[in-house]
Amino acid sequence: MTPEERDRLAASRFVLLSAMRASGVVVMLIGLWVWHGDIARTGGWPAAGLPLFVIGFVESLVVPRWLAKRWRTPRP
């Protein structure tokens, strides 16, 4: 693999990890809004908002770390 290919691969992985984190935060905020806001029902809807929040949490914090660990270059 050439240095240019490595740089492109690293840049695309960085963009993917950043997009995963950002979209996870958006899903978390939507989950909180549904959970506590009046968007779906008056007084909030915990049965729908809590799972959205958990999915967003996993998407923004757990999945990027797992991918980074999986993509890490093995040490010789």
Describe the structure.
The chain is mainly alpha-helical and 76 residues long. It has a domain at 23-70. The chain has two helices and no strands. Helix 1 (3-36) packs antiparallel against helix 2. The chain is elongated, with a radius of gyration of 17 Å. The two termini are 17 Å apart. The model has no long low-confidence stretch (mean pLDDT 93).
What integer is the average pLDDT? 93
Low-pLDDT stretches: none
Structural class: mainly alpha
Identify the overall geometry: elongated
Rg from C-alpha positions? Answer: 17 Å
Strand content: under 5%
> Sheet bearing the most strands, described?
none
The number of distinct helices, counting runs of at least 4 residues, comes to: 2
Cα end-to-end separation:
17 Å
Oligomer: single chain
**H/E element sequence:** HH
Question: What's the SSE blueprint?
Answer:
Layout: H1 3-36, H2 46-71
Helix pairs in contact: 1-2
In short:
The chain is mainly alpha-helical and 76 residues long. The chain has helices spanning 3-36, 46-71.
Features:
single chain; 76 residues; 2 helices; 0% strand
